[in-house]
Design goal:
The chain is mainly α. It is built from 3 helices and no strands. The longest helix is centred in the C-terminal third of the chain and has 12 residues. It starts with a helix and ends with a helix.
């Protein structure tokens, strides 16, 4: 389980939304234009184990 999942689980979150904004929030890009479906699948798999 990822560190983010553990934190959200302890706080009682039922769902984690993965979207193209990960380009700006996680990858530090200026916009979401270069976020591919593969990027979103990769990050979704990172939290899927919960």
């Amino acid at each position: 389980m990822s560190k983010f999942c553990k934190i959200f689980d302890e706080l009682g979150f039922d769902i984690i939304l993965i979207g193209d904004s990960l380009g700006e929030v996680i990858k530090g890009q200026k916009n979401t234009h270069n976020v591919s479906l593969e990027n979103m699948i990769y990050h979704s798999q990172s939290v899927r184990e919960l």
